[in-house]
Amino acid sequence: MVSTIIIICLLTACNQKSQDRAFELSPFQKLQENKREYTSTFFALDTVITITFYEGGSEELLKLCEEKIQHYEQLFSRTIPTSDIAKLNAARGEWTEVSEDTINVLKIAQYYCNLSEGALDVTIATAKDYWDFTGASDFVPDTETLAKACKHVNFENIEIDGPKVRLLDRDASIDLGCIAKGYIADQLRNALIELDVKSALLNLGGNVICIGQKPDGAAFCIGIQKPFAATGVYETTVELREATEEMAPNYITAVTSGIYERCFKKDGVLYHHILDPKTGYPVETDLASVTVIGDSGSTCDALSTACLALGYEKGKQLIASMYGIKAIFIKTSGEVEEIYGLPDA
């Protein structure tokens, strides 16, 4: 997902560290350190990541987050030759043994590719290879080239057997860009909760997920970027917090997909990075932006891309069929609509 979510709350750092301690902290000192705010910003997953602990954090945990993100990147990035995905793509249809996390994220991806009836397809990489949305080039591939590439785009060609995976089409290639950051955000959050972090906000380049709420009990306020406006101009806001007895539902994560970043114009035509698995060209959609809010980063990541590809009517139907989520659709016309899924099962 692109970096289209703006965190409105102030993220400040208090990364002071006691030096050369020769004694144990008193319970009071430990409590004070536990409630200090810690933040870190770094580059990974091809984006800028910001981790902020409001309660229960430490410099050591900031470092742990960075290491875990780098670990997952080494598994999921198709551009790192030693990654699970790169090795699977290079195996030319042979069985490849991969990590448990790679198996898990591939199974989740298969589910949402099927749910979207192929509008989302993680084997899009063969077509994606012909495009450059970094701003370095405005080259537009020809129809024949993309048609040949799309013959190898079919998520049903992913076969999983225990810890092994193979692609039934030896020329197929996987790209997990539509789901990897959401999955990583979920794993980070779970690990931090086990380490007793009480309040935190993790921004993985626009995939935002929280733990608890702000120390004063308020929700985290997240701004949704206005499509095609200057960065920092937001269309609306959403609140993230864990559900409590007094307040529900459990909206802890928000993910946005949009056609206005990672794009270029040529001869008056906008070309964006969300590709149609059938044609290899950018999807034709009446949606400029889709933000999905819920309790699973993987789900919100996959659905935001799927809905954008499906367009307003089919995307709305998909959101309405899902439990415990809501979405904000911003149409290309500028109209904004909030859509709710089913109540929690």
Strand pairing plus helix content: what structural class? Answer: alpha+beta
Strand content: 15-25%
Number of domains: 2
Low-confidence segments: 9-25, 27-31
Largest sheet strand order: 2-3-7-8-11-14-15-16
According to DSSP, the number of beta strands is 16
Radius of gyration: 21 Å
The CATH architecture of the largest domain comes to Roll
Instruction: Give the overall silhouette.
Output: globular
Order of helices and strands: EHEEHHEHHHEEHEEEEEEEEHHEE
Oligomer: single chain
Q: Helical proportion?
A: 25-40%
CATH topology of the largest domain: T-fold
Distance between the termini: 27 Å
Major sheet, described briefly?
8 strands, antiparallel
Whole-number average pLDDT? 91
CATH superfamily of the largest domain: ApbE-like domains
Helix run count: 9
Q: What is the CATH top level name of the largest domain?
A: Alpha Beta
Give structural notes:
With 345 residues, the chain is an alpha+beta fold. It has 2 domains: 5-72 and 184-340, T-fold (Roll), CATH 3.10.520; 84-167, T-fold, CATH 1.10.3980.10. The protein contains 9 helices and 16 strands. The strands form 4 sheets. An 8-stranded antiparallel beta sheet has the order 2-3-7-8-11-14-15-16. It has a 3-stranded antiparallel beta sheet with strand order 1-9-10, with no helix packed on it. Strands 4-6-5 form a 3-stranded antiparallel beta sheet, covered by helices on one side. Helix 2 runs antiparallel to helix 7, helix 7 packs antiparallel against helix 8 and helix 8 (297-310) runs antiparallel to helix 9. The two termini are 27 Å apart. The relative contact order is 0.15.
